[in-house]
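re the bet — no i am not wrong, look at it urself. input seq straight from the record:
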Amino acid sequence: QVELVESGGGLVQAGGSLRLSCAASGRTFRWYTMAWFRQAPGKERDFVASISGSGDSTNYADSVKGRFSISRDNAKNTVYLQMNSLKPEDTAVYYCAADRPPILGKYNYWGQGTQVTVSS
């Protein structure tokens, strides 16, 4: 069992940057694959990025490649999402997810979400 709490969302102008954080409870954080998803109003929740337990493997949605970077600090039980060159279409609620490992891309543990709004 793991509990996830996101932070770092907010309002930013297009072209700006934000860094999201997701703090996890528990002593086995390093065993969990971590991911970020996002959900825009009226749309389905979409995959953004994931990172392996050791941090040596990452994956990104095509829409964020080259602009977003996922990382983790296992000593702090925290995963990050650095978002650069933000666009209005990045506006969404961003969710942190965890599993060990995810089966067919499905994660069982989710945070409450943090709002990111990018103004044009």
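see?? The chain has a mean pLDDT of 96. told u. also The longest strand covers residues 92-99. so pay up
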